[in-house]
Specification:
This protein is of the alpha+beta class. The protein is 21% helix and 32% strand. The protein is built from 1 helix and 28 strands. A 4-stranded antiparallel beta sheet has the order 1-28-27-26, with no helix packed on it. The chain has a 4-stranded antiparallel beta sheet with strand order 2-3-4-5, with no helix packed on it. The N and C termini lie far apart (171 Å).
Length: 467
């Protein structure tokens, strides 16, 4: 009875992780573990992971093999030697997800742009597959089951710039489609953005977040399709990533905030602000994937190209990594945490190996008042960034007004100079006209004096002479 409520404080325990199992791609041609998805009903006794395998490198030499493997697998974590189920798509899968409503079914996105639907109760071949003419034209990098009455609808994104909605009972053609353009009214003049990752939360059923290969974040609100097709474009300047966004995910405890993984940084955003509110320091190696902890509001995981898994704990400190774990020499490619305790971490690499790690209790058990503290911290950073944005806007407006005033002053000065010049010209014209008038008057006076006076004088002399 003394131990009914276990309120131990794990914050003093140093962070750590240990390896539990390794799941290796059974095929001889080693492929990248492109995505990992935990079974929705993960528990201590039954835990499964769906892993998609594909080669994403363009024109890779392994493509020259006539018998390139296309299989992906579902593994049981207690049996790492052989896969629990084998899926045989027509083209290698880039993403794979369990259906949260019907956990025996999965949807996968293929390298050639096809959507395939599987049922583990039957066999590994797809139950339904989309038609290549009406599918994506590039690899499908992410797919999500979405909220619907039947539980059969999903959405997919691809680097071909399309977002498509599907009904897995009829995959002949998509239910709806959207072009990922920053300006829906002028798609010709505005470049189409290629989708490289997606986030969907059933608590916000009409909103989607899409990370693009151009490093720009897009928010899609289906309730607002009249305005730019419902697409809102986030920072395209200093706030955007310098490369593709490989992962995008909302914080499980605070849905308004989300994280993006790209280039050498992880960035945290607030959906009402177009610029990131927090950015990690630049990591030593390129980042390839990331996700939040499902149990701790301030913890997130990022995978690196040098084979290291970094764990950040914002409840502890924001400027340094809490724990780094060297998984292997190969480049890491994907990461996913179990929904239950939050202690099981599955990490995939470029050789098709998935390592199952167990993190210590301090990285998984919620700390006292952590949710509120992280919420307050994110709100504070949001307000600070908003104030900075407002100040920048005010400064730009003041500068514009100043330039306008200078321009106006210069115009007034110019007008004054023009008026003065015009006045001088008028006075010169007036003086010139006066001079001409005076000259004409003088000439007329001379003419009037010389003419009649001469005649009188002549007559007088002749009279004197005759006299």
């Amino acid at each position: 009875e003394y131990f009914d409520t276990d309120d131990r404080d794990w914050s003093g325990e140093p962070p750590s992780a240990k390896g539990l199992a390794v799941f290796r791609d059974p095929n001889s041609t080693k492929r990248t573990a492109t995505s990992i998805n935990w079974h929705p009903e993960t528990s201590g006794t039954t835990s499964k992971i769906a892993v998609s395998y594909s080669i994403l490198s363009f024109q890779d030499q392994r493509f020259q093999s006539a018998r390139l493997a296309t299989q992906s697998y579902v593994w049981d974590v207690i049996n790492p030697n052989t896969p629990d189920s084998e899926l045989c798509p027509p083209s290698p899968l880039c993403c794979l997800r369990f259906n949260p409503k019907s956990t025996d079914t999965l949807v996968g996105g293929s390298y050639n742009g096809l959507i395939t639907f599987y049922d583990l109760r039957r066999h590994g071949t797809p139950i339904e597959s989309s038609v290549i003419e009406k599918s994506h034209h590039d690899p499908i990098y992410d797919v999500y089951w979405i909220s619907s009455k039947t539980g059969n609808q999903c959405a997919s994104v691809s680097t071909d710039g399309q977002m498509l909605w599907w009904d897995t009972r009829r995959l002949g053609e998509p239910v709806d489609k959207l072009l990922l353009s920053a300006d829906a009214k002028n798609p010709q003049g505005c470049p189409v953005l290629g989708g490289s990752s997606m986030e969907y939360n059933k608590e916000i059923p009409t909103k989607y977040l899409v990370g693009t290969e151009q490093g720009i974040v897009l928010s899609i609100n289906l309730r607002n399709r009249k305005q730019n097709n419902g697409i809102s474009v986030y920072d395209t300047g200093p706030g955007k990533h310098h490369g593709p966004i490989y992962s995008i995910q909302r914080n499980p405890a605070h849905n308004k905030f989300f994280m993006t993984i790209g280039d050498w940084t992880a960035r945290i955003w607030m959906e009402d602000l177009k610029t990131p509110i927090m950015t990690t320091k630049y990591h030593k190696a390129y980042l390839t994937a990331g996700c939040w902890s499902p149990t701790r509001a301030g913890v997130f995981y990022v995978t690196r190209m040098d084979g290291v898994l970094d764990i950040w704990d914002y409840f502890y400190r924001q400027n340094e990594i809490a724990y780094s774990h060297k998984v292997g020499d190969a480049s890491l490619s994907s990461v996913a945490l179990s929904n239950g305790s939050g202690r099981l971490v599955a990490v995939g690499d470029a050789n098709g190996t998935v390592s199952l790690l167990e993190v210590c209790e301090s990285l998984a058990a919620p700390q006292q008042n952590e949710k509120n503290a992280i919420g307050s911290m994110l709100e504070r950073e949001f307000k600070q960034e908003k104030n900075l944005e407002q100040r920048d806007r005010d400064l730009r407006r003041a500068k514009a007004l100043e330039l306008e005033a200078i321009k106006k002053d210069s115009t007034i000065e110019k007008d004054k100079k023009d008026a003065k010049m015009e006045e001088q010209l008028r006075s010169v014209d007036a003086n010139f006209l006066n001079m001409i008038k005076e000259a004409e008057d003088d000439e007329s006076k001379v003419d009037s004096l010389s003419g009649p006076a001469g005649l009188v004088t002549g007559e007088g002399l002749s009279q004197d002479g005759s006299a």
